[in-house]
Amino acid sequence: MSRAMRELILGRVRPGAAVTFFCLPKRNVTKEKGTPFAGPHYGGFPALLAKPGGCATRAIRCAATRSDSARRLPPARLRYSAARRGPNYVAVFTMHTNPYLPHVARIVERRQDAPTIFTLRLAFEDAAMQRQYRFQPGQFNMLYLYGVGEVAISIVSDPEEETMFDHTIRVVGRVTEGLAKLAPGDRVGIRGPYGRGWPLAAAVGKNVLIVTGGLGCAPVVSVIRYVMRRRADYGKLTIIQGVKHSADLIYRLQYEDWARAPDTTVLIAANASAGPWPWHVGPVTELITQAHVAPDSSVAMMCGPEGMMIAAAKILLQHGLGEDRIYFSTERNMHCALGHCGHCQFGGKFVCRNGPVFDYSEIKELLGIRGF
What we know:
Layout: H1 3-10, E1 18-25, E2 41-42, E3 45-46, E4 48-50, H2 56-59, E5 63-64, H3 75-85, E6 89-95, E7 103-114, E8 117-124, H4 127-132, E9 140-145, E10 149-154, E11 165-170, H5 174-180, E12 187-194, E13 207-213, H6 218-229, E14 237-245, H7 252-259, E15 264-272, E16 280-281, E17 298-303, H8 306-318, E18 326-329, E19 345-346, E20 349-350, H9 351-354, E21 357-359, H10 360-363
């Protein structure tokens, strides 16, 4: 459960903040293990479960606002409404907002990582919004360039950096070309975070294998930084990076720094090289056997060209790693990020809502099929 949701339950929200009230059948509600309050996704928003009374009644002092199926009730009545509906109902609270409207964020810092790759460090102009904004590695935001359009970009900073957040962006189209021209002090719109991130909580105590191909691959950079800041919580960390040409490696100094970390191995491959190149020449998948994966105590997380990920997954499966321990970060053309427009539909799933992170068993039947 996000910190913003916990703050809502404990009543630490702005006076007059909008809170939507629902009564849902218990059969439609799931409780997350280890959390006192958890709930379903209602209309695309994370919902909170709360039994009538207790801490949750402190949150209902905020203004109750009308939503799709919410009843407008005086705060004094909200406390008891679920109980009146019967023992099989619970009260659900969720922050009220328009999912299509971006929040204004200011560029605090801009860094050029490569000729076509740059990083923006952002902070919301609304201080309260920044305080309640929380994400998990692997999730993404929709970045809106005013007057041009919107694009889905992975968040690469650490979730504990509460005052700012980072996006590493590659120039590939009209919106990203416009974003590349911005400077500190300029403003963009932000919607998010969206999607399902990496299973880092489930990976605690296990060896983590990162396999990535291409320029930078921001989704797994966030994982590496997360594990590095919590090094004692995880086992051996192996980072395998592949690029087409040695000149495409943009984080050379960063990889060298990571390689010096305790119990960490960095393996890098280029299909072709020019000049001094101290690492492997050939496909990145040739390095997987050097990782010495322990199938009973390892988790693999991958990002990059789909063909590369499929090939790497097959090798890991041959080494005994289970399908449910191999995770892909998938890329599709996302427009709304809410599962409404259908542009990112992936069989019966939507990448924006069910992904972008999937375990191999969830999507193996669709991988490599043209049209999916």
